Amino acid sequence: MAGKTLFDKIWDTHLVREEPDGTTLLYIDRQLVHEVTSPQAFEGLKLAGRRPRRPAATLAVPDHNVPTTDRRLGIADAISAKQIQTLEDNCRDFSITLFGMNDIRQGVVHVIGPEQGFTLPGTTIVCGDSHTSTHGAFGALAFGIGTSEVEHVLATQCLVQKRPKTMEIRVDGVLSDRCSAKDIILAIIGKIGTAGGTGYVIEYTGSAIRALSMEGRMTLCNMSIEGGARAGMVAPDEKTVAYIKGRPLAPKGALFEQAVQAWEQLKTDSDAKYDATLVMRAEDIAPQVSWGTSPGMVLGVDQRVPDPATMTDDNTRKATERALEYMGLAANMPIADIKIDTVFIGSCTNSRIEDLRLAASLAKGKHVAKTVHAMVVPGSGLVKQQAEQEGLDTIFREAGFEWREAGCSMCLAMNADVLKPGERCASTSNRNFEGRQGAGGRTHLVSPAMAVAAAVEGHFIDIRHWS
Ligand SMILES: CC(C)[C@H](C(=O)O)[C@@H](O)C(=O)O
Ligand code: SF4
């Protein structure tokens, strides 16, 4: 029998039933819930008179709409306030654990799952949110689902799926100084495009991936969806085990030892075949900056903005022209000449403690440029607390950054943290669509290190040579 990939192993152990046409009923171990995509799901349960099949398998948190300023003042926006209240009511009515807005454990849903030890290797994890792929960093099969599916999983703990194909993306070698997981994933999406992963689950392999911390692997898997993939994953290893050990919801004692033994089996067999493979060298990856209006429109900071006049394909040329117009950029200008107004360090891509430590180490002793407004939004209340214990908040404040409460914030501007029309932002988030951070706002996706350097200089700069 042919060997199995990591994906095959998880899929096969969660398969409840498979039809001849490949339609599969998959068992879902865990579900995360937030305030935006859950109200109709709970409403559906109510109307049908059903209860969650396994309430303990679900964890809920408000994140998209929460204010990142003083929460004792409540929520000014009526729609946001109602969404958060509705989540609280539903969790109470359906006996689901909720980390409320003022709970120290509150944070972006994809930050708190791993932080609590809710995210475990070998499990199937879903959430009504596309960046659920983040949890694949632990060797879980984790993917985003729609609201009707949220209801289905609540009611049955199962989901109807078609088996996706598998893609290996192998990155060997050593990253350049100050380059990070964010640069790897942006470079991958720059290469495969935003549809390159369509129909696939990606497994990231190679020495550069193994060298990443768990935080780095989460950044990587987080953006798999921006490359079109259903999910991204990294096989668990000793770093995974060390990260999970002792977390509040992780197995304890003998159960933990048993779990570790099972997790050791979670790797792709040497004779297994992927449906597709892409190979890259870490040395070739420069610090990345997105210049356009999709995550695939991205280049190294040492490059120039593309010139539509050189493009032979009509669609590519038109898309480039439109993107340059929206972004207010001239063809051929050096990316390092792009001046920015705002810096956002946060989001489920880059707001974990390691991201903040790195950002603070570069911000220390420097100051945000006079023309720039910069903010740091920790991924969770616990990340914020940890950062404060380490004095990172002081470093950021002294350098001129605002230090905020945890939430999605300016990643998608559902709360008060919004770009003004025309404002240009260096952002550590994952999406740069038109209007993503506010109507008319212009987003450049970068790593935390690149964001700090841009905040200080007022424009992008190659951090490999920055002092
Ligand atoms: C609001 C939610 C449905 C959405 C998602 O699915 O990703 C959001 O988190 C985002 O990042 O755009
Ligand atoms: S931080 Fe951004 S990408 Fe992540 S869940 Fe929130 S809105 Fe979506």
Automatic annotation (TrEMBL):
PROSITE patterns: ACONITASE_1, ACONITASE_2. Binds 1 [4Fe-4S] cluster per subunit. It is an enzyme of class 4 (lyase). Its EC number is 4.2.1.33. Pathway: Amino-acid biosynthesis; L-leucine biosynthesis; L-leucine from 3-methyl-2-oxobutanoate: step 2/4. Pfam families: Aconitase (PF00330). [4Fe-4S] cluster binds at residues 348, 408, 411. Keywords: 4Fe-4S, Amino-acid biosynthesis, Branched-chain amino acid biosynthesis, Iron, Iron-sulfur, Isomerase, Leucine biosynthesis, Lyase, Metal-binding. One of its GO terms (molecular function) is 3-isopropylmalate dehydratase activity. One of its GO terms (biological process) is L-leucine biosynthetic process. Gene3D superfamilies: Aconitase, domain 3. Its cofactor is [4Fe-4S] cluster. NCBIfam families: leuC, PRK05478.1, PRK12466.1. PANTHER family: 3-ISOPROPYLMALATE DEHYDRATASE (PTHR43822:SF9), HOMOACONITASE, MITOCHONDRIAL-RELATED (PTHR43822). Belongs to the aconitase/IPM isomerase family. LeuC type 1 subfamily. Catalyzes the isomerization between 2-isopropylmalate and 3-isopropylmalate, via the formation of 2-isopropylmaleate. Heterodimer of LeuC and LeuD. This is 3-isopropylmalate dehydratase large subunit. It comes from Nitrospira lenta. The lineage of its organism: Bacteria, Pseudomonadati, Nitrospirota, Nitrospiria, Nitrospirales. The gene is leuC.
